[in-house]
Fold each of these.
Amino acid sequence: MLLLTVQEVAAKLRLSVAYVQHLIRKGQISAHVVNQKQFIDIAQLDKLVSGHSFRENPDIPWDQYTTIQDFTSVVPITGRQVGNWLRQGRFPNTIRVGHQYYLSLRDIEHVTGLSATLFRSVAEKASSEGEQRGRRKSRKEAHKS
C-alpha cells in the first residue's frame, strides 16, 4: 500500500490542499492518520479520479457560478485584469477546481453592477454566437479542401 500526503494528493490532482482536506472531511476520500499527519492510499485516489468529477459536487450551486472565459466574453476586460481582481479580493466567493476558476454571480453583480439574470442571458447569447462562428469557420475550411 503506497500512501501519499495531503500535499502530494493536491499536487497530483491539481487542487488546493484545503479542497483535498474538504474532501476528506466530507468522506469522499478516506485518510489514514499517522503521527498526526493524514495519508491517502494511492489505489483509493485512482478510483476517486476515475469515477468522480469535481464539477458535479452537489453541495455547490453551480448555476450561481460562471467561468472567467464566460465573464470576459460579456464584460470588456481581459483575463489578466480578472486575475488582478482575484488577487485583490474583489471576487471573494470564487471557487477553484484544478486550474479552472468559477466566479460567483453575486460577486460579478457587486463588481460590475450587472444583475445575475442579465449576465446569464448575455453570456448565453455570446456563447451561441461563438458556436455559430465556429461552425461557419469549419464550413469554410471544409469548402477549401
Amino acid sequence: MLDLREEAGMELELSDVALRLGAAAFAGAMIGLNRDLAQKPIGMRTLGLVALGAATVTVATTTVPGMVENKDAMSRVVQGVIQGIMAGISFIGAGVILRDARTRTVEGLTTAASVWVTAAVGIACGLGAWSVVLIGTAIALTLLVLVGRIETLYDSKPSANTPQSQSPDARGDLREDEAVGSRAAGAAALQRTP
C-alpha cells in the first residue's frame, strides 16, 4: 500500500482515503436513491457527488503537512472547512426550493434538507467517524422512506378541519383580496364607459 505519511500531516494510507471517499459517495447515492424514486430533481448522482465533495475537502484538510503537530491549528482549520462546506452546500439546496405565494405552498424542502444531510455524512466519512456515518445515514433513510410513507398516509386522509372544497370561500383567505380586485375591475370599467 502507498502510505501518505511522508506527504501528509495525518497518517492515512491510500486504502483509508479510498474507503472514506467511497463510503461518502455510496452513502450519498443511497440517500439520493430515495429522491430519484420520488422523482425529485436531485438524485443518486447529485447526492453521491455532494457527499464525495464534502469528504474530499475534509480528507484533504486533515492531511495538510504540519497539522498533526499543531492540534490548535488542526482544530481551527477543520472547523472552518466544516462551516464552509455546510454554508456553501446550502446554495444547492436552496436551488430546489420553490415557493408559490399565491397558493401559499413551499416545495422542495425535503430535497434541500437531504442535500445538507448528505454533505454532513460526507464530512463524517472524510473524518473517518464511521459510527456517525452509519447512524446518520440510517436515520436519514428512515426519515425519507418510513416517515415519508407515514406523511403520505396522513395527507391522504381528509380531517374534520380541512375544507373539502378549495374554492376561495372555503379557504377564506382570498375572499377579501378577490373582493378588492372585483371592485377595482368594476371601477375601471365605469371609467371607460362614455
Amino acid sequence: MEIPFQAVEDLVGLPKDGYPQLAGPQPKELEALRTPEEQFESSFLTLRRALANDLLDAVQKVSPKNFEQIVVDLLIAMGYGGALEDAGEVVGKSGDGGIDGTIKQDKLGLDMVYVQAKRWGRTVGTPDVSQFSGSLLKQNAQKGVMITTSQFSKDAREHVKGLAQKLVLIDGKQLAELMIEHDVGVQPASKKSYTLKRLDQEYFEAFDSCTPKMLQVCMGSPPSLCSDESKRVWVN
C-alpha cells in the first residue's frame, strides 16, 4: 500500500511550511568565536586586498611609458641593482625588440636584467613570451622579467620552464602585492601603527625553574626600589 507523502510528513511531525533548517553557528556567531587576533588579521587582509585592487586599477590607467617606469622603480625597490644610482633605465621605444627596461646588477653593467612590461587587459600567451625570449637571445641576455597587469596563460608559464634563460613572469595580482610590500605607489593610511604582542610564557616559566637560592630580596625596601647593591642578599 502506498502512503501519501503528506501522511509521512504528518507521521514524523515535519512542519507544514517546509523542512527544518540544520542547526549551526550563524555568521555573526562565527565572528564572535574568533579570537581578537584572528579578527585583526582578517580585517588587515580585507584592507590589503582592497588596496591591491585599487592599486591595480590605478596602474592600468597610466600610460604605457609610465607603466614601464613603475616596473623599473619596483625592481629597484626590491633590491635589484643594489645601491647604484643609475641601476634602472626605461628603454622602451619603437623597435626596441620587446625590451622596455634594464636593471644593472653591477657597476659596469656586465650583469643585466632585461624587463618587458605589458599593460594589457588580455591574457599573455606563449607567443608573447617566446617573442620576449627571442629579444633576450639577441641581447645575449640570461635574465629577464616579464610583468603584466593581466595574467599569463598556463601554457606560457609552462613554456618558460624549458627556456635556456632565466625568465620570471609576474602577473597583475603579484604586481600589486609586490608594490604594496616594497612601498611603490602606496603610503601609510594612518600615522598610527599597531604591533600585536603576546604573553612571553618562557619569561615567567624561567622563574619557576630557579633554585631557592636564586631568590633575591632587598633588605629594608622592596626589590624594585632597591638601588643599593650592598642591601641585596640571596636567601633560601
